[in-house]
């Protein structure tokens, strides 16, 4: 039996192994690009609007005849939208009269028509807000379903 003697070949092998291990540090993986959503250009009046991804082409999963969705949307509307857009949806809420541009009127052109022709545009505005106007962004406060419910209620207010 021999103690205290390390064979030189074993020592070399150990050092080589250590060097090999330290060289094998995991490579840094490139993180996903920050998920920024373009808020879109601030347009007013009749300027053409291009709805950005991921909103482009989205459709309201609810119909204005869906009583449950309308009533859920009404509760949200009363709490968060009515002060500007008004209890009738005509844009004449108490906090709306001082705003320029004024809050959208869901009962008249051009917004009224969008409930059937441009639901993606409405959902985009409610989600991201409308730069250059007082319209706030609600995607951090309301789920996708809640945003569609409140849009469905506004559609109903607009005569849908
Ligand atoms: C602080 C006032 C204010 C509040 C609160 C507010 N809005 Fe608005 N909203 C506006 C203004 C101002 C506009 C811009 C109108 C324009 O430029 O034509 C607007 C625009 C919109 C549009 C776009 C209409 C279009 O023709 O494209 C929708 C949809 C909308 N609001 C829905 C909502 C909903 C839903 C809520 C509540 C969850 C809400 N708003 C809360 C002021 C407000």
Tell me what you see in this structure:
By secondary structure, the chain is mainly α. It has a domain at 59-160: Cytochrome c-like domain (Cytochrome Bc1 Complex, Chain D, domain 2, Orthogonal Bundle), CATH 1.10.760. The protein is built from 6 helices and no strands. The chain has helices at residues 8-23, 67-80, 82-85, 111-117, 119-128, 144-157. The longest helix is centred in the first third of the chain and has 16 residues, at 8-23. The protein starts with 7 loop residues before the first helix and ends with a helix. Residues 10-44 have low confidence and may be disordered. Heme C binds at residues 44, 76, 80-81, 83-85, 95, 99, 101, 103-104, 110-111, 114, 121-122, 125-126, 130, 133-136, 138, 150, 154.
How are the SSEs ordered, and which strands pair?
Elements: H1 8-23, H2 67-80, H3 82-85, H4 111-117, H5 119-128, H6 144-157
Helix pairs in contact: 2-6, 5-6
Bound molecules: heme C (HEC).
The sequence of SSEs as H and E is HHHHHH
Using the CA coordinates, give the radius of gyration: 29 Å
The quaternary structure here is single chain
| Terminal CA distance | 96 Å
Helix content: 40-55%
Largest sheet: none
Descriptive keywords:
single chain, 160 residues, mainly alpha, Cytochrome Bc1 Complex, Chain D, domain 2, 0% strand, binds heme C
């Amino acid at each position: 039996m021999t103690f205290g003697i390390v064979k030189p070949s074993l020592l070399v092998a150990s050092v080589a192994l250590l060097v090999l291990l330290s060289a094998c540090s995991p490579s840094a993986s490139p993180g996903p690009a920050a998920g920024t959503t373009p808020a879109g250009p601030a347009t007013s009046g009749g300027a053409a609007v291009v709805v950005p991804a991921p909103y482009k082409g989205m459709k309201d999963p609810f119909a204005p005849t869906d009583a449950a969705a309308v009533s859920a949307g009404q509760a949200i509307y009363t709490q968060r939208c009515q002060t500007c857009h008004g209890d009738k949806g005509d844009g004449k809420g108490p906090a709306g009269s001082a705003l320029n541009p004024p809050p959208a009127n869901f009962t008249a052109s051009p917004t009224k028509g969008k409930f059937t022709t441009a639901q993606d545009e409405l959902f985009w505005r409610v989600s991201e807000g409308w730069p250059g106007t007082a319209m706030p962004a609600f995607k951090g406060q309301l789920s996708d379903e809640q945003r569609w419910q409140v849009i469905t209620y506004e559609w109903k207010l607009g005569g849908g």
